[in-house]
Prior knowledge:
Belongs to the CobD/CbiB family. It contains twelve helices and two strands, in the order αααααααααααββα.
Amino acid sequence: MAFSTAAGLVLGFAIDRVAGDPRRAHPVAGFGSAANRLETLTYADRRSAGVVHEVLAVGAVIGLGLALRRGGIIATALATWTVLGGTTLARTGNAMADLLEAGDLDGARALLPSLCGRDPEVLDADGLARAALESIAENTSDATVAPLWWGAVAGIPGLLGYRAVNTLDAMIGYRNERYLRFGWAAARVDDLANLIPARLTGSLTAALAPVVGGRPGAAVHAWRHDAAKHPSPNAGVAEASMAGALGVQLGGRTQYRYGTELRPTLGEGPAPTVRDLRRAVRMSEAVQAAALLVAAVWAVRPSRA
């Protein structure tokens, strides 16, 4: 079983590298539609209702994962491909850099929503580069490192369960009027699910900083001194370590469609440029590959039971 899991993770990662996200009928989109329908039945402006929603939605997906465990390497590979988003993330980051280098701000603004929820209409070229870079940093953990980690720990149920948790957080884990209480459980479960993966991402980013001409010590320094200032206990680790590795400063005034936030600054150095965005993509790809190695080794480790 351990070898089957490790081999499935490697094969699924390879499929993602070749094909990217499924182009049609993406299972994650299907889960999102099902979760929306479930919300019409479970919604109430209470934390308890949100807990019920989380248990039903995530529990159903984990149950599906348990049923698929007998599928061996192929089932694990397909589940891994389904939940990974690292290749599409890197391709989108490079596409954003291409548009910015060509001076196509309209095209860059149209592309930004596929990376993050910022308001692209108020961003100039540097603002678009920073928004894309911060998304690359955070989603390196969410889209690849975390699912690989949970796949190594719990096989197909871990892969699918993590993606369900992360998707629900993206759907309802907001502090707005509708979801402040109902989305509380989704946000907290996602925080817990990403505690280890985010720190693995930070560690790998620091270790691999020389890949982009950075220093491991600078990445660790930014992590230790700045990550805790971020409103997310996990995104702060990924973004601060990336800022330190690249030698740039992230954070500051951040404009979303629902309003403006003044985010704490992460790292020391100038604001990121298009060149730094390309460096961030290279770092993301290196961290993803290293995370696969860690996950495969963890999956086949001798049991201590």
